[in-house]
Amino acid sequence: MGKKEVPSLVKDEKLIQRRREEMVKAAVSLFKENGFHRTTTREIAKASGFSIGTLYEYIRSKEDILYLVCDSIYDGVKLRLQQDINGEDSGIQGVERAIAAYFKVMDDMQDEVLVMYQEAKSLSHEALPYVLKKELEMTAIFEELLFKVVKQGELHLSENEIPAAAHNIVILGQMWTFRRWALQKIYTLEEYTQLQLQQLLYGIKGA
Amino acid sequence: MGKKEVPSLVKDEKLIQRRREEMVKAAVSLFKENGFHRTTTREIAKASGFSIGTLYEYIRSKEDILYLVCDSIYDGVKLRLQQDINGEDSGIQGVERAIAAYFKVMDDMQDEVLVMYQEAKSLSHEALPYVLKKELEMTAIFEELLFKVVKQGELHLSENEIPAAAHNIVILGQMWTFRRWALQKIYTLEEYTQLQLQQLLYGIKGA
Amino acid sequence: MGKKEVPSLVKDEKLIQRRREEMVKAAVSLFKENGFHRTTTREIAKASGFSIGTLYEYIRSKEDILYLVCDSIYDGVKLRLQQDINGEDSGIQGVERAIAAYFKVMDDMQDEVLVMYQEAKSLSHEALPYVLKKELEMTAIFEELLFKVVKQGELHLSENEIPAAAHNIVILGQMWTFRRWALQKIYTLEEYTQLQLQQLLYGIKGA
Amino acid sequence: MGKKEVPSLVKDEKLIQRRREEMVKAAVSLFKENGFHRTTTREIAKASGFSIGTLYEYIRSKEDILYLVCDSIYDGVKLRLQQDINGEDSGIQGVERAIAAYFKVMDDMQDEVLVMYQEAKSLSHEALPYVLKKELEMTAIFEELLFKVVKQGELHLSENEIPAAAHNIVILGQMWTFRRWALQKIYTLEEYTQLQLQQLLYGIKGA
DNA sequence: GATGAATGAGTGTTCATTCAT
DNA sequence: TATGAATGAACACTCATTCAT
């Protein structure tokens, strides 16, 4: 399904998956603390409980780890998002609930979100598109949601307004984490969510 | 006025300023291309037409360059913004015009904005606050603008809605650059500006 | 026993010891020729048959090498000294023999002694005390020897004369190496030893 | 009289001498603190109140400064020594007084002595002999003194004992400074002088 | 499959020295 | 004579990656 293959010297697929999970977990924690460039492969190996040799049995390069990390975080976010949105009531209320759920996910996964947004740019030209694609997929979730509600007649957005609106939702959620140094000082998550719902739906003039 | 002093071995202040400008210019271009960490001081020296020794006559460390770069970009953005907003008509129309002007600046300075947002995090704990402060100052410009219009009675925002709205404006402008890979494929700047103005003012439901 | 630990990235203790011995040997030779500051880590690596990377697997810094060098030299001197003095006849004759043995060691280890005396001062404030302590221990060997003979009644030194006498012995031995440019031109080791024994025991007036 | 010429770009000899004195003074102080290698020419220039350009008008290289420093210190030591010894009473008492005076000079000029002994080795092969020669001249002062007293019949040293004795005197004086970390903790200068006079004249057995 | 010692190109930074003004 | 900006060779040290065991 469009995922980038990361080759491994090891054959056992189950083992690969298990080991990589541990590596990714250690890497996220280290990247969060020191960033991708300041984190050494030795540190990642040590933090995940492997020797440096073993680490390189499961990846080809340091960048592979970054890709795996980004990939894993996206999967995590998307998984939680789909769970939370799933089967929700439709209409405007459904949109509101989805946004609130998304904001909650962003809040819960702050460290991961931060890592992804600060380090993804270090991916090579080869790997970057895969990650960008995931980002688009996430935006598409909200596009579809909006589209559905437009179709239901509860919303009157023209076709080219929908992508912009979806991007706005996605970014406003991420902003909660990457502007935490400002926003989380003046708002709680609940306040922030309420405020942004209000402004997203009705604008600053709309009320 | 709260700027971080970057010491130089050279005494001539005019010369320092001139040389640093050239260095910053070269650095922005390189950082944009390869990122801060992948850019070497030698490359910066060469690209700005100096020897590595001369580079270090004007800065103490590689990080100083990053700080200078961020500092310079903020000054550039703010300068242009204040020029463009200055003396504008008041009321909602003034806000709209300011936002459009801001979006235009973001569009014109895409490379710089990108560098700032992707590399600022590499600043040391000592330098980061200075940059964050500048970011807040930029947000404050819009806060004040909104506050004025609220006072004029043309806008009905409560006090704690204003910061959120200002952050939204700032971020939506930056989003035009750091999501260029998606947005600039489907919108022109003018379309994007119109769309975002509409949604900022009236929301997706508001119309 | 009060030694400074020098950490290594390599785990195999035996290997560490073996490799470091080779490095120290190469370093002594280079330090003797060009001094600590004029010797580069690359030269040390090359002379000991390793890559620069490998060198740094076994030490943390250039200064570590200097410490290791000093440490190793002291151990060497002390070891030989204790072997040569061990089980010797007592009384004045024992002292004479010990001094002669010590002078012989100084003569045999001229390069090392020279390095130690000329470069130890380049040790950091952290490492210096460890080296000074070793020097004191060497002095203490002669203090004890003298003390024993005083107790035996063959020597009539007051308590505060003993340290001075011990320092004199130590220095006069080292002088043979660090004033080689003068002394070794006019004396053989044997002559020097005889002369100094005479003067140490009876003074210039005493005969 | 056997001095090494250090060329200068400046013609005025008086000026050269005056400027160099200031440079040497600053350099001694810096060398004492940080050693020759850790002291930069810029620091020396600054500390002596000149620009780096001016510094190089009066010397050709950093090493020239070291030579000038050593030279100046030797001159200082010798000058004071000759003043203090001059016209003294003859015989053994004259020797004793000379030694005590020499020890006093060493004590007064500790910093300079230390610099000379720790940094002289950094002189090039070209300059070193000049400094060694000075050291020999100092030894010769005591050789002559001893020779005179032997001739007077108050001392019975054979011809080849005299150089050794003179070297011993010189070194024991220097030892007071370069073993200060041990000796100056247990003796005052007066105690040390008395002790060493006793041992020099009568030895440890002689009394 | 696992280990960890070995590698060396590459990095930020320093500093003695020069030379145009 | 005096200045100080410019230079670049040289340095200590790092770290992703390999490969023999």
Task: Write up this protein.
Four copies of one chain form a homotetramer. Chain A is mainly alpha-helical. Chain A folds into two domains: 9-60, Arc Repressor Mutant, subunit A; 67-202, Tetracycline Repressor, domain 2 (Orthogonal Bundle). Chain A is built from ten helices and no strands. Chain A has helices at residues 13-38, 41-47, 52-58, 62-85, 91-108, 110-119, 128-151, 161-178, 180-186, 189-206. In chain A, helix 5 packs parallel to helix 8, helix 5 crosses helix 10 (189-206) and helix 8 (161-178) packs antiparallel against helix 10 (189-206). Chain A starts with 12 loop residues before the first helix and ends with a helix. The model of chain A has no long low-confidence stretch (mean pLDDT 93). Chain A binds a DNA duplex (21 and 21 nucleotides) through residues 9-12, 15, 40-42, 50-54, 56-57, 60-62.
